[in-house]
TrEMBL record:
Any one Gene Ontology molecular-function term assigned to this protein's record: oxidoreductase activity
Protein name: NAD(P)-binding protein
Keyword set, alphabetical order: NADP, Oxidoreductase
Function: Putative oxidoreductase.
SUPFAM superfamilies named among the record's database cross-references: NAD(P)-binding Rossmann-fold domains
Organism of origin: Melanomma pulvis-pyrius CBS 109.77
Transmembrane segments: none
InterPro entries the UniProt entry points to: NAD(P)-bd_dom_sf, Sc_DH/Rdtase_CS, SDR_fam
Family: Belongs to the short-chain dehydrogenases/reductases (SDR) family.
Lineage of source species: Eukaryota, Fungi, Dikarya, Ascomycota, Pezizomycotina
GO cellular component terms attached to this protein's record: membrane
Length: 275
């Protein structure tokens, strides 16, 4: 439910899904802060979207992250929503070491999983504190349909997005230890996009299409505008208690989330654990 969002930080908002969400939230009158590495893209957003705020930093510069986040929270003490959205994708063959370097694999893991985990650690106490005082807060973390249904083309991407899915479950379980008021007001939401037409796979799209047998057989990408429209439709849907849906899935992403909830989710329920 978008009405609970007043001030939102989008980490990784200079391109693709992140940028499109930033533009839509800004158009809804929300206070929007965007981070990214590309100074020129951040400047373009500031020029085109009156009143938007930006911060330039690299989420894989782990030593500097605490300083950057402290500065953000000092500037926006009422920040109620954080969206961790950054990600990169490589396509390679684990049986062919020449198809990728060890350093490239490390960068992908750091960007897609290590950084979101560190960012969650830095933002969760702030959001929990506001929630304890009655403010509705939300931590959004973007995974992928490939975190539920991995495909051979993207070894590290699928693995890291599965890790992000696990991260959101753990965040909810640990939230269940917090005071009741905080639990009631804070939501942990996993964003689960399908294959969407962005620049994420621009370096290997043609190759992966060929590996699938050509355009007639390859998985089609959902147009970005269509995805954003459906995302906001799902965002307005709520659970019976008024909280946001635990997974904001669209298309193939929702299929993956529903399948997980219908199988492993039931095991957690039998264990009495939050999911």
């Amino acid at each position: 439910m978008s009405s609970r969002i007043n001030t939102i930080l989008i980490i990784g908002g200079t391109s693709g899904i992140g940028e499109a969400l930033a533009r839509r939230f800004h158009g809804m009158g929300k206070t929007v802060i965007v981070t990214g590495r590309n100074k020129a893209k951040l400047a373009t957003l500031e020029k085109e979207l009156h009143g938007i705020s930006t911060r330039q930093f690299d989420i894989t510069d782990f030593a500097a992250l605490p300083t950057h986040i402290a500065s953000l929270l000092e500037a926006f003490p009422q920040l109620d929503s954080v969206m961790i959205n950054s990600g990169i994708q490589k396509s390679f063959n684990l049986y062919d070491p020449s198809s990728i370097t060890a350093d490239e694999i490390k960068v992908e893991i750091n960007t897609n999983l290590t950084a979101p985990t560190l960012l969650a650690r830095l933002f969760a106490p702030h959001l929990l504190g506001l929630a304890s005082k009655g403010t509705k807060t939300t931590l959004f973390v973007t995974s992928s349909s490939l975190g539920f249904i991995p495909l051979s083309f993207y070894p590290t991407y699928c693995s890291t997005k599965a890790g992000v899915h696990a991260l959101t479950l753990i965040l909810r379980q640990q939230l269940s230890f917090a005071p009741e008021e905080a639990q009631k007001n804070m939501n942990i939401v996993e964003i689960v996009p399908p294959y969407t037409d962005t620049g994420l796979d621009q370096d290997h799209r043609e190759a992966t299409i060929a590996m699938q047998g050509g355009k007639e057989k390859a998985f089609p990408a959902m147009p970005l505008e269509e995805y954003i429209g459906k995302f906001f439709e799902v965002l307005e849907q709520v659970e019976p208690d008024g909280s946001l849906k635990k997974e904001l899935g669209v298309g193939f992403g929702q299929m993956g989330a529903d399948t997980w909830r219908g199988s492993f989710g039931k095991i957690y329920a039998q264990m009495g654990l939050s999911t």
